[in-house]
Amino acid sequence: MTAPDQNDPAVRKGQEDRLRATWAPPMGLFLRWTDTNNNRVGNWYTATAFGFMLFAGLLALLIRAQLAVPDNDLVSASTFNQLFTLHGSMMMFLFAVPMFEAVSILILPQLLGARDLPFPRLSAFGYWSFLIGGVFVSGSIFFDAAPDGGWFMYPPLTTDPALSGLGADIWMLGLSFIEVSSIAAAVELIVGVLKCRPPGMRLNLMPLYAWYILVVAVMILFAFPPLIAGDILFEMERLLDWPFFDATRGGDPLLWQHLFWIFGHPEVYIVFLPSIAIFAMVVPTFARRHVVGYPWIVLAAVGTGFLSFGLWVHHMFATGLPNISLGFFSAASEAVAIPTAVQIFVFIATIWAGRVVWSTPMLYAAGSLAIFVIGGLTGVMVAVAPFDWQAHDTYFIVAHLHYVLIGGTVMPLFGGLYYYWPLVTGKKLSDRMGRTAFWMMFVGMNVTFLPMHWTGLMGMPRRVQTYQSSLGVDGLNLLSTVGAFLFAAGVAVLVADLFRSPWRPLARRNPWDAGTLEWTQKADSEDWGIRSVPLIESRYPIWDQPNFVRNIDEGRYFLPDAEEGRRESIITTVLDARPLQVIRLGGPSIKPMLAAVTLGGVFILTTYHLYWSALVSGVLALGVILWWLWTGTGEIPEKPEKPIGHGITVPLYASGPTAPGWWAMFITMTGDATAFASLIFGYFFFWTIHADFPPPPTPGLAGPGVFWPMMALGLILAGWALTILARETNARGGVGIARIALALGAAASIGGGLAALAGPWFSGLDPVLHVYPAIVWVLVIWVAAHAALSAIMQLYTLARSLFGRMDPVHDADVRNITVYQHFFALSAVITFPLIAFFPGVA
Amino acid sequence: MRSSSSVLTAAAGAGKTNVREQVECNGDPMTSDECARRTGGPNLERTLRLAALPVTLLLSGCAGVQSAMSPFGVEAAATARLTWVMVAGAVLISVAVAALVVRAVRAPEGSLSHSGGMSLILWAGAIGPTIILFGLLITALPMMRQLPVAPNDLTIAVGGEQFWWRVQYRPTGAPPVEDANLVRVPVGRTVRILLTSPDVIHSFWVPGLAGKVDMIPGRTNTLVVRATKAGTYRGQCTEFCGLAHAKMAFDVVAMEPRAFDAWLVQARTPTRLSSPAQAGALTPPLHPGPGLRRGTEGAAPSGQALYTSYGCAGCHAIRGAGGRIGPDLTLLPQRRSLAAATLPLNPATLAAFIRNPQSVKAGVLMPRFAEMSDAEARAIAAYLLEPK
């Protein structure tokens, strides 16, 4: 096969027509919503998260109106509690994290010169889950049923049915659903950064935004599962009265606080690092030079990610901890300021060394940095435990966290909006309105929150519906309210600017004269993304690589065509981005939406205790997901390989560690294992804290014995070994033996799951009596549920083999489920010896 | 406003009179004691001295009663000093960074070489902060230690409950004294405060005395404090605890040690023999009969009889007689406020609260007495405000 002549305009025209047809979005009133292209899904995602932010902002204005004067009764205490709970929860779960994921889905393919992310349908599924869960949670305020226990939902206030209503369930289940979609997006982004880079873009040539995405997505992967584990325990207590957080039955309210803040503190950095990432793109562009200290900033980002998992306890300084914990977590909390300072000085050094071109995005960057530095410094103050004992849960913290989050998330995001708007829409926003909005927000922000530091030290706690004049904070509060409305007016100006955008003329290509890959995109860009996938030799290829843009446009790099009419992108190696495979991407499909609707049904129906309907919805969700996988993944291509240009030919099919699907499974299971580890943490937490754990073996409290757990362990390990056997024999052509092994493996998994449940069942462990039986039950239910999934996977793989969708060469399915089996076997190896022998040892 | 000496008088001989002079404080009508308490007496001067901070100009004259920056305890004082040091440091660093940014923006291209940039990052970004933070940590670590406490030091057990405070003084070698919503501490003596909660998590915070400590079901936390200055102050719950979280505060009175000892003895001693225990009201009827409630034809029933007939003792105790669900009412006449330091205490507010607690403090667990007349409520209030 000879390479096409890219000098011939007719050849190029033919390629472009084929690409256009292949990537054409579905049309029609409904069908357009089945699109999965990152451009469209990313737009919906971003707009939705932005809408939730505006809504949560309105709630904040109500809060400020209520607190404008002392002893006010504009809103009742009940409404007020819903307002602040929803404001915090929405800003965190429906704005900050999803916004990062939305923007990343939108621009990551452009940053990496990929046509799309590796799993476009997963992005669509994530979006629809987010929309459904978000509307469910935020809409509750209109029915006076919004959560009212604070965004941290501390039990026992929130687990006692007498003290908390439906709102607590809406929070737990609605947001758990969104957490699942967040993890889905994180998996997508990690695989995207690791496997979808253009040829030549070694890790050390990656744009900084991609580095930050990688760090943040990995953080999501480890931070959200502890919260999900906590949510499980929490709902078990609310719905079934299992006493995980009930001190009268051996539980402990502090376990929730640990699980929540193991999530909650990394969460702060999860929402802050993406903004630094935007700076890291904006600052070099307007300093007209490479970033100074690329290794420094990458190391600092990674270091922040690591450290952020070691300081959750600083949210619990007032809970009466031993001195050693105080000292350790105080030190760690202060230490995290160091990588943050490194990142800030990287920008200062870059600006200093470069020639600054002043612009609206740069104004936002500078302003946010100023705000953020103040937030960071007060952060160091509250890391000092004795000061925190005064400041904790007062308006000082409200001030601190808003300096951090407005300076570190909201304002940089607005700056990013001005920066990337031309990339997404082809049009520039108004500089004049952008600057007006900036100054209104900057002044408004400071007028609102600077006085709050003092308000807090003067004795005003957080989350109070009203306050007395005797505190002497009337004037400060009024000032804060005035500032909040000024800030809101600034946001309104910005929104008006966005709405005027469609009437503006197209901007020129690369309007900021930036050097990074994404700006090769034309103002009237097409859905196919990049015209040809370039070979990258620099961090700023537009600046450094000669004829870079022209070569891309003329299809002179890789994969300039869509000969087979299939949506394709290049998969490369993790470290040095050598081409490995051309991946066939999923096109428009209704299945992700259906999966989101049915899975959402499980969470929403459970909230209203409609368990049978929830079960039906769950079965439907499982069916849709299997249908989606069956038709959309592991497809055997019509030919083994294809040329991508420049004499390089790569396979169309990959399995094992070469394939993105294997990575997705591995990464997902890492998150799953983290949730499991959190449950194990719970078991040992109760043991270390309480002398009566495990309690004396009386009826209902003794169990689960040794026999059944060991039986379960044996069966699960047998299932694991049989799956490995299936993988190996299948690869060697022994399809028949592999099929038998898979069938037996499924039987072993089911048997293992049942044996797991049999232990506590036959020994009569009563989970309502005490936390010990409850945690044992949760562990075996966790393993049993995974056993059921394991059996489904093994039977699915068996069916794939029987229907000719898997053969000795095309064996991605069995390789992927083997990854699952490794993690599953590990959880069994930990769980069963623990529950069988630990009571005797303890 | 009253002078500081009258505050001390009020602190020592609390609640001798029930009808107090009405004054204006910050626009709120309240008793003069109340206003004096709000001003914090001598703290006023201290607060004004802090006027160096521009933001203080916004404060009304009535401030400092619940302020971490107007300390009256050794821990709070040390923390306040640390706060000023850190604020000064933070302002200094902010200004320095801002100046550096301005300089960086104005610098012509190439005025900082690549290696110069790398050293800037190393020194200003990594090494500088490390040294500063290490210094801060070393300074703060000793402050994390609790004050030393001796076995004979006074113990006060405080329980946080939705939405009030159960207070029990446990002096060594003497029977305990039960009170609510008011914590008295002797000046200059170390006091151990045991913190618990039977329902949800609360947090005990007297900013002028020490930092906050949570009250967690199933745990007992200890806070050791030493007041340094007599006066009347305020504390508040700082862990969100439900509907009336904003109205869960308490008064704090720091007393001269001798006055405190005298008060403890006096509080333990019944002032009259006709207290409910002696009057045989130990077992109140579950359903007060109409006869009892109306009393003898023609003569209005006494407040004490109404207290009994409405079943108040089902939840409240006076001199050890009655339930323990609600606040102990023995020392109510000596309290400084009502409904967990959210209302001024006088016969009118007390009567209104008794009839319909929800109307003045939404979320309070005490039921409403719809059938109780205003006169009955006033009679009960009058009875409750008599020394027991």
TrEMBL record, chain A:
Keyword check for Cytoplasm: no
Alphabetized UniProt keyword annotations: Cell membrane, Copper, Electron transport, Heme, Iron, Membrane, Metal-binding, Respiratory chain, Translocase, Transmembrane, Transmembrane helix, Transport
Subcellular location: Cell membrane
Coiled-coil intervals: none
Assigned GO CC terms: plasma membrane
Keyword Cell membrane: yes
GO process annotations (BP): electron transport coupled proton transport; oxidative phosphorylation; respiratory electron transport chain
NCBIfam families membership: CtaD_CoxA
Protein name, as recorded: cytochrome-c oxidase
